[in-house]
Design goal:
Largest sheet: 6 strands, antiparallel
Number of domains: 2
Oligomer: single chain
Order of helices and strands: HEHEHEEEEEHHEEHHEHHHHEHHHHHH
Number of helices: 17
Shape: globular
Distance between the termini: 68 Å
Number of strands: 11
Length: 434
């Protein structure tokens, strides 16, 4: 027994240190968020519908910004800090994991390097504190982790397929060059992964259950119905979720999977990507109707997509993806739309309230169960079917760090926050929702 204790103590001495090798945890601010959004736009191809190679370039500052954003976005990793360094042919990664003991702060400092060799990326130089870790052991651990993910998450294979689009990575002194095998469906794959991050078998079953509830609702509509308000799906589904939570179900999981199922239907995504050839789906073909907010299909699509991504991957990811799309549209397509941005922001608010904590999740269920109109969860917007192109946007707002733009976004957020579904003061009882 003493031998085991001595080994554990030695292991702690070798791996845990009194100071972190990355001293400062970067706090992501609004300027950083807009920088990430611009990175996405600048590196996206002008013609996203055309297949081909796309070469991306990220410098050290950009890589560290993305690393900090990832750590602050993924639950449970917010206390960690990371640093990326580049050199010709290789890169090094430092990760700090705080280890708090009574009266003492210790740090697990992880260091690893990757290099280009024979056209592939090779991992080497792995160290935990003062303890070198054999590369073969690290590779075995990675393979084991991938196996665990594949066994526990139903969409892990789709994530792996998306990773395979990376054709080549080249390390230089000042930047890393990444070559992507761009396919027209890549953006939809990214969106799908963000909406359905790490789905368990239980998640899959709940999504299918809510999807079949949607099928029942639309089947009961009159035969000549081609378009419905999102209300006709959103409110009944949350009434069902409220009953299930009252019977002991996990309110956060119910809300998350409800929003994922709703987005799948509203955006006409293929449910079989999750469910496979499910007998229930085969026996009950799902009727298609257009779903709208303020008589606009696009607003319903924006809101449900952002809500599902927020519920799955967090508000930060949802906000970046949605605003990046508007910025991309301003440059290449229909223009920057504040109406679309409002729907995106309302979706983020919905997804966040639905999954932030169990108490708020159940309270939201109650408020939506008693809601009656679209303006309970989405403010009225102008009918700007064509948005501002990049030149017009620059003329009016200069850029997205200008005070004029920030004031416009703040006004939208304030309007959303005051809506009955998101404001407990305005929805303390069913009578509070008009």
């Amino acid at each position: 027994m003493f031998g085991v204790s001595a080994f554990v103590l030695l292991l702690m001495i070798l791996t845990l240190q009194l100071s972190p090798i990355v001293s400062v945890t970067r706090t992501i601010d609004d300027v950083d968020i807009r920088t990430i959004e611009q990175l996405i736009v600048d590196n996206a191809p002008e013609e996203i519908s055309s297949a081909g190679e796309r070469r991306l370039q990220l410098d050290k500052e950009e890589l560290n910004l993305l690393a900090a954003f990832g750590l602050q976005t993924i639950p449970g990793l917010q206390a960690m800090a990371a640093d990326v360094s580049l050199s010709a042919g290789s890169a090094s990664f430092d990760l700090v994991v705080p280890w708090q003991l009574p009266g003492l702060s210790l740090y697990l400092n992880l260091h690893t390097r990757v290099r280009q060799r024979n056209g592939a990326i090779e991992l080497y130089g792995v160290r935990a504190g003062h303890l070198p870790i054999p590369t073969a052991l690290v590779r075995s651990a990675i393979l084991l982790g991938q196996g665990v993910l594949a066994a526990n998450y139903v969409n892990f294979q789709e994530f792996s397929t998306l990773q395979q689009s990376v054709r080549d990575i080249t390390f230089e002194d000042e930047a890393v060059q990444v070559t992507l095998n761009w396919q027209p469906d890549m953006l939809s794959q990214v969106k799908s992964q963000a909406e359905q991050l790490f789905l368990s078998a239980d998640d899959n079953d709940r999504i299918l259950r809510y999807y079949m509830q949607i099928a029942e609702i639309v089947t009961s509509l009159p035969a000549d119905t081609a378009t419905i308000s999102l209300n006709e799906l959103l409110f009944p589904l949350f009434r069902i979720a409220s009953v299930r939570s009252a019977n002991g179900r996990d309110a956060i999981a119910e809300n998350r999977n409800l929003l994922q199922a709703l987005s799948l239907y509203v955006n006409e995504s293929d449910i079989r990507q999750l469910a496979g050839e499910d007998p229930e789906l085969d026996a009950t073909p799902v009727r298609r109707v257009e779903v709208t907010i303020q008589r606009r299909v696009d607003l319903a699509q924006h809101l449900t997509t952002s809500a599902a991504i927020t519920a799955s991957a967090g508000a930060g990811v949802a906000g970046i993806l949605s605003t990046s799309k508007e910025t991309y549209d301003a440059r290449y397509r229909s223009g920057f739309s504040f109406s679309d941005l409002t729907a995106n922001s309302a979706g983020v608010a919905l997804g966040d309230a639905a999954t932030n904590n169990a108490t708020e999740a159940q309270a939201l269920q109650q408020r939506l169960a008693h809601a009656t109109q679209e303006t309970d969860y989405m403010p009225p917007v102008a009918r700007d079917l064509t948005g501002l192109n990049e030149a017009d946007f620059s003329e009016q707002y200069r850029d997205r760090n200008s005070q004029a733009y920030l004031d416009r976004v703040a006004a939208i957020d304030k309007e959303i926050a005051a809506l009955p579904v998101y404001s407990p003061a305005n929805a303390s009882s069913p009578a509070g929702i008009q």
